[in-house]
C-alpha cells in the first residue's frame, strides 16, 4: 500500500482517494453568507481560520449575528481554527507598523494565539485541539521560526502554511505537520484551475490544501459560481476525492 495515500474504507473495499482540504482565512462575511451555505448544500466540510468575530449587537443582551452563525457552523461539523488576533504581516505588504510582523515579539504572537484560542473555546467548546494558519503564510518573528514553539506550548496541534498551485503534500511521511503547504487561491481563479490542482493531487494519491479568502466579495476574490462549481465537481467525484477538514486530514496522517 502506498503510504502517501489515505485509505478510505467502504464495507470490505479499500480505495485510495486523494485528500482535499478546503480552508478559508480571516472569518470574512462572505464565508457566512456564501461559502458555508454552499458547502452545506453538498454536505462538505471546510476549515475556517478566524482572527476575531466581526460585528457587535446593537442591543444589550443580544448576541452578534456573526457569533451565532459561527457557532452554528461549528455545530454542523465545520472546523474553526486560529489565525491570531491582529493578523500581523510584513510592512512591505502594506501593513501599519502597529500590526506589522517586524514589530512583533514571540511573546506577543503567543498572547494573540492564546486569546483567539479562548474565543474559539467559547464558540466551539467541543473541539479540544486547534489548527493554525500563519498570517500571510509567514512563520518568522524576531528572526526565529515560531511554528515549533507554539506547538510545544500546546497552543495548536497543526499548522497550515502557504504556497502556489504546485504546493501540495507530495509525501505525507515527510510532511512537517506545523508547516503544511497550501495553494493561496488568487483573485479570479477559474474552475479549470481549481480542478487542475485537485487532479494534480490525485495523480500523486496524496493531499492538497486550498487556501481561499473572499468568495464574491472582499479580497483574493473568486466568484460564487466558480466556488459552487468546484464543490459540485468534488461532490460528483467523491470516489476520487475525500474532502476533510484540515485537522481530520492531519489526524489520519498522524496515524500513518
Plain-language structure description:
- The strands form three sheets. Strands 1, 2, 3, 4, 9, 10 and 11 form a seven-stranded mixed sheet that branches. Strands 5-8 form a two-stranded parallel ribbon. Strands 6-7 form a two-stranded antiparallel ribbon.
- Strand 9, helix 5 and strand 10 form a beta-alpha-beta unit.
- The protein has a single domain, classed as Glycoside hydrolase/deacetylase (TIM Barrel).
- It contains seven helices and eleven strands.
- Helix 1 packs parallel to helix 6.
- The longest helix is centred in the middle third of the chain and has 18 residues.
- 33% of the residues lie in helices and 19% in strands.
- The chain is an alpha/beta fold and 256 residues long.
Question: What's the gist of this structure?
Answer:
The chain has 256 residues and is of the alpha/beta class. It has helices at 29-41, 65-75, 106-123, 147-152, 191-204, 224-236, 246-254, and strands spanning 6-10, 13-25, 47-50, 79-82, 131-133, 140-141, 144-145, 158-160, 183-184, 207-212, 241-244. The chain has a single domain (6-20, 38-52, 63-254), classed as Alpha-Beta Barrel (TIM Barrel).
Amino acid at each position: 500500500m502506498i503510504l502517501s495515500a489515505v485509505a478510505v474504507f467502504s464495507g470490505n473495499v479499500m480505495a485510495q482517494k486523494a485528500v482535499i482540504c478546503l480552508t478559508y482565512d480571516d472569518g470574512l462575511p462572505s464565508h457566512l453568507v456564501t461559502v458555508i451555505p454552499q458547502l452545506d448544500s453538498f454536505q462538505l466540510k471546510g476549515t475556517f481560520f478566524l482572527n476575531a468575530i466581526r460585528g457587535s449587537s446593537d442591543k444589550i443582551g443580544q448576541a452578534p449575528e456573526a457569533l451565532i452563525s459561527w457557532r452554528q457552523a461549528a455545530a454542523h461539523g465545520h472546523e474553526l481554527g486560529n489565525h491570531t488576533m491582529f493578523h500581523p504581516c510584513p510592512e512591505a505588504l502594506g501593513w501599519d507598523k502597529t500590526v506589522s510582523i517586524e514589530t512583533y515579539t514571540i511573546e506577543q504572537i503567543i498572547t494573540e494565539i492564546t486569546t483567539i484560542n479562548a474565543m474559539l473555546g467559547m464558540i466551539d467548546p467541543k473541539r479540544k485541539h486547534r489548527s493554525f494558519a500563519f498570517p500571510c503564510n509567514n512563520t518568522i518573528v524576531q528572526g526565529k521560526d515560531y511554528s515549533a514553539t507554539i506547538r510545544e506550548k500546546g497552543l495548536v496541534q497543526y499548522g497550515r502554511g502557504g504556497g502556489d498551485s504546485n504546493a501540495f503534500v507530495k509525501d505525507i511521511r515527510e510532511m512537517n505537520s506545523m508547516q503544511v503547504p497550501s495553494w493561496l487561491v488568487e483573485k479570479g481563479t477559474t474552475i479549470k484551475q481549481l480542478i487542475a490542482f485537485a487532479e494534480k493531487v490525485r495523480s500523486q494519491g496524496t493531499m492538497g490544501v486550498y487556501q481561499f479568502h473572499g468568495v464574491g466579495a472582499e479580497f483574493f476574490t473568486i466568484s460564487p459560481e466558480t466556488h459552487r462549481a468546484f464543490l459540485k465537481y468534488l461532490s460528483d467525484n467523491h470516489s476520487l476525492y475525500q474532502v476533510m477538514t484540515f485537522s481530520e486530514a492531519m489526524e489520519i496522517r498522524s496515524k500513518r
